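User: Okay, second chain of the day. Same drill as before: sequence in, structure tokens out.
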Amino acid sequence: MECVVSAVVEKRLGALPVAADVSRRLDMAGIVDRLCPGREIAHVTHGQVIEVLVANRLTAPAPLWRVDDWARERAVEEVFGIEAELLDDDRLGRALDAIAPHLQEITDSIGARAIGEFGIDVATMHWDMTSMSLHGAYPADDQDEEYPQVKHGHPKDRRFDLKQIQTGLAVSADGAIPVLSRVLDGSAAEVSQITGTMNNLRTMAGPKDFLLVGDSKLVSYGNVGALIAAGVDFIAPAPASKVDDTVYAALDLEEAAVVDYVPVPDENLPAEKRETYRVLEDVHVLSGPRKRDPRHTVRRILVHSTGNARGQARAREKRLAKAREELDKLQRGAGGRYYNTAAKVAARIGVITKTRRVASCLRTEITADDAGRPALAWHFAEEVLRAEEQVDGWYALLTTLTSEQASPAEVLRRYKGQGAVERRYSDFKGPLAVTPIFVQDNKRLAALITVICLALLLFCLIERQVRRSLGPGQKMRGLYPGNQMIRPTGRMILYHLSGLRLRVSGATDPPTVVISRGVQLHLLDLLGLETHTSPLARDLNGLPAKYGASRASGTAPARPRPPCRCAAGSGPATGVSTRHGSRAAS
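Assistant: Same drill. Structure tokens below.
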């Protein structure tokens, strides 16, 4: 076997130049360094480490371990100017410890920078929280009380056996950009986070008014009072406990106005199969816990959804079918070996009633013969089932928007944007893989989740930039097999850019970027990253002029390397230069 040593080295480039460019526009490293200054003799600053760690979370979401190996295989040194040996586990841990006391200032500053730099419209903001279940004991005595605590709570994934930590996101209606993020205690109540979030958003939005859209946890007497006092409008669904079913049962569906709104999943369906909405309007009064508390009166938009009605009808029929099967089995077994007393039969009925949620409509009668053997008779109350059918599909939205600001139909349309924050949580736990997390210290845990939130911000900005460059509602080919036209998502953009490679030929030849698919070139163009037109390899403009040069003050630059054929500027730039054309403008 003949072995040949080649002078050509290839590294995975992927989306690193894109991440570096967005990070530079957000001044991420600068903001972190100003809030968390390090020692002057450091080879790399905390801001540089966090910037690279965000790129790591964005391009290679995996448990935080051996990041230096990842940097060595990728073109981290060429793009960020940091040698892989400087990114060992201890250095990452020190950076996380450094930013932990300033997480809110960091995220708010970077979020405000994103609003200004990318021209994000924050007139409407959507707020929601999610939980992340963690494996491990996390004893209370071992946790730092100054940082969010890992505790038991109400997990979204129903893993009540595990402790959790929570995250809250405020997402703009414009591009679904998470401009504000928070790491919260595992047991924190969502209803208690609204006032603080509202005040932080007011600071970030500046003099502009904004609309806060949330879920039913937003609606409490204290929250509504604080929002009204601050002059912040809101839209949120009324909790089920605050609107009695008799209100919905008394409504006349024919009097409700049809809303001109088609859900995205139904756009390609025939008109008769699409979900339709109708709305009515009245008022809702919230009373305080004390008699002397002022009462808050807000608009109540009563919404009927045919999709919700069908879903509730199917769910009820499924519950009834399972309950019917179990009750028939119990009826046959009454008086037998396992249910030989009335008490045992009654206990089993209680389990079925609770599990299948049929307490309101189930009617039972337990009798006994002369020998004491129990017998069961049961039926579902038809009048109760008909009453439940009458309220299927109805729910209520509460808002402080006046009728001049928004009609009932417009209130519904604005609320429907709440799905944007749910989609971002899907990205948070999907492409960015927020779990599993192997961090025992709750201080570092909060810092790491904040880093992942910053990665989510970059993820969303990249998606928004590509979509804005394409134009409103435009789609593109090449992202999915079959060459079908779709709207690009952040997941697919990063997937296709992950195939980019950087070829370093030698000491005298400039590095080149190898583009193997046309969709990669198209995405780079949409993102405003300049390329040349060589058919085999293309040089990406903006790679650092001298690779390895440290930006930390007081240190000597590393061994210089030849400049990229298209490198711009004279210093070690942090990313790819942005083309200031109309398509790249945000």
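Residues 124 and 211 are 5 Å apart (CA to CA).

User: Thanks, on to the next one.
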